[in-house]
């Protein structure tokens, strides 16, 4: 990067400001001469690494199918939802991916998984169309602009010195940014229609979660008995009261950990005995038998004070401890049940129908509950499956929840603020030319060979940036859950917001402006009118960093995403060392790789934000972003088809937020162009850019005003029970038409305009440019093939305990041992049964080497298998 690193407001900052206006019209040739070598230096190792990773992947994919293709065979995935794979050849996966449409993910895996792939396609489309608009116009304009830039920088805005050429940039900006705004609006409309059809399909509308509302701040004045209709409306059917179970949670955790210790100790004992027996059989023959004394000597010993104290049998000690822990759990459960009348922290309420639940969620009931307060934390949620609930957080009073949320925001703000010191250091590495010129002790850098210097300035900074930032969302997720978020989905959505701010501020603005947040954030706050000038002076000079950043990410990271060697090493390391019981091996085998939506969405949203910000300043960034995103799309497509089983379902809310966040790139790009036109004293172009900026603000406000309610809840007109001909999206008259009618209407309109367009071409254009017709609820229902699946069936016991805290209902874990040739597992089962501890050795065994095995082909028959209830 050719911008200057400044850590204070002293003379260095003043020097940067005084020289920036000159740099805007004529970049320093010597400083920019390394731009092409830096890009090439980033491309070559990234390309070689990507090819190497893919070769290794093709070779090892077949023998390690548990890591690379579990969704094609594992019993955890129902057969009808498995990804078809005709053979296990090395390249069959390529043929399978080519045949399958992305809708396969929607119909057989996850709504969010499908929407993420659509999000990636949308970003690619934005960058591709943007390149098609900008390259043919701006490349010639910039290249012949009269500046002194060289190599790749000659294609950027900095090479333009003729004011008359600035009109081209303004016109292109209007076209590109107007296209982006239209596409964002279209996608939001499309998503509203899809979500409405998805929510109202029989398979989803009849789920318990669809007709259940979570009240985080329920009324506490009325008695518990008989207050269901009084407080929650006449359509309320059932309630689950949540109380503070802090002590019980600890007791349950102690009980379960004791059971796991007992299981692990007994398995270790069985393995020791069988290994010794195997050694004796090897020496004395297969008839060798261990004596009872030899077996007794191998039993594990427990000492009260580890080294000192009374020696007792460890297995007997743990049996007694498990009995005692189970007894305490049952005693505490009774007191928790009695305390419900005096202490209710949250309440789940089931309503008679999805429509009734939606009315209660909006506050449109005759109950005594007030409408949701207008605060940053919602007092009620709808559509929450039990598996998404963070039970410990439900017991937090609403006022404390708000305080924790505020504290969490402060922590994240400080993290983002002080992370800039790291970003500033990374930025300084890419600017070693400037540093070596101004600091004598760094002059030795100028003597380095050009390839080494190219690696330092081109490859190393984005590599460090990518590595360090990967740990940030993990910390943010921890803070979100500690802040009192009631569900894993709301926590993930909070991570998405925080990580988006981190990505834009640190990965983009701090790095692009060649300063630290401790310098530019206070200045922007104190002088917001200087934002266009600041962007104008710094963005054109920082494009080289993002050229190499997109190359590194697109080639190296996407290939790494497919090879996923870290998961491979981790899986087999834990399988051979830590996971030494049937339960642990089963848990590892059945834990398919998930995906963190709060992490991946902001990363790629920031990709397109950077590309849009540079669209008219350095159009080459758009093209490389398009290629990089396409490579990432291919890698995630493979993983979602063959590897990933999403564990969170945000129902498209992550996609909605990211669509709105994309406009950040439009705002930054417009502000930068306003500043650049101001530096050139181009009055006409400046006015037009200002009009576009104001228009963008108005557009954003209007779209949020009309679409936010539709994105948050289902319209009442669609919830009328038994109404199969529900009104269309946004209640537009034309949306009432069927898909065929919509096509015919569009065709007649085109004919009326004198257009003679073939029908096969007309349909795609009509779908794209008439979203108010083609995204209506009626039409989107046909888009979902699985909308008429059978309604879920619930047992009475499933409904009674659906939203009960697991601490109140969970049973003592059943001890699962491997069977062995010595027959000791049967003796341990008998001893545990006498202590009222359920134990089995079904489906697991010790092989000839003493290793634990379990029946991987029949997971559903194993004692630890649990059928998932479709709540």
UniProtKB/TrEMBL annotation:
Keywords from the named record: Membrane, Transmembrane, Transmembrane helix, Transport
Regions that span the bilayer: 38-60, 119-138, 166-185, 410-432, 452-476, 497-521, 607-633, 654-676, 682-702
Domain CSC1/OSCA1-like cytosolic, chain residue ranges per copy: 233-393
GO cellular component: plasma membrane
UniProt domain CSC1/OSCA1-like 7TM region: residue ranges: 404-677
Membrane topology: Multi-pass membrane protein
Source superkingdom: Eukaryota
Database matches in Pfam families: PHM7_cyt, PHM7_ext, RSN1_7TM, RSN1_TM
Span of domain CSC1/OSCA1-like N-terminal transmembrane: 38-187
Subcellular location: Membrane
Keyword Nucleotide-binding carried by entry: no
Domain 10TM putative phosphate transporter extracellular tail: 768-856
GO molecular function, one term: calcium-activated cation channel activity
Family: Belongs to the CSC1 (TC 1.A.17) family.
Record's protein name: DUF221-domain-containing protein
